[in-house]
């Protein structure tokens, strides 16, 4: 089964009100979601707001799990927490799911909509000028975790 078919099925289930756990890949949401090691729990989107992490179909024709960083009418701007400058845009109707929890490698659920995570995400946003250095330090100190996740992705 292709990734595209899996995403289509996830979106169908979420649209029917089923919560779906989806593994994520990539480093675009570091340090809050570790691709290849963690999964996200998705639910049907309600009124989304700046700060929410969502599954969206973005301009350019692909899906991302990224944070909403701005809203201008019906147009939303998204950015991965691990990205330095790259943003994506989508229409509100292109939000397919809302991330409610992150599931770690031990199967523990961590609620994403809590005070600590909001505070940490806001602080991380303001650290954009030095994010490159913080991410390099994070990758260096977590090299074994990130290497293991890359190995699990290649299996």
Task: Lay out the secondary structure.
Blueprint: H1 3-15, E1 20-23, E2 39-43, E3 53-58, E4 62-72, E5 75-79, E6 88-91, E7 95-103, E8 109-111, H2 115-126, H3 131-141, H4 143-154
Antiparallel strand pairs: 1-2, 2-7, 3-4, 3-7, 4-5, 5-6, 7-8
Model regions low in confidence, pLDDT < 50 over at least 5 residues: 149-155
Largest sheet: 8 strands, antiparallel
Strand content: 25-35%
SSE series = HEEEEEEEEHHH
The total strand number stands at 8
Distance between the termini: 15 Å
Protein described:
By secondary structure, the chain is α+β, with helices and mostly antiparallel strands. Helix content is 31%, strand content 30%. Strands 1, 2, 3, 4, 5, 6, 7 and 8 form an eight-stranded antiparallel beta sheet that branches. β5 and β6 form a beta hairpin. The longest helix is centred in the first third of the chain and has 13 residues, at 3-15. It is globular, with a radius of gyration of 15 Å.
Q: What's the short story on this structure?
A:
The protein has 155 residues and is α+β, with helices and mostly antiparallel strands. It is 31% helix and 30% strand.
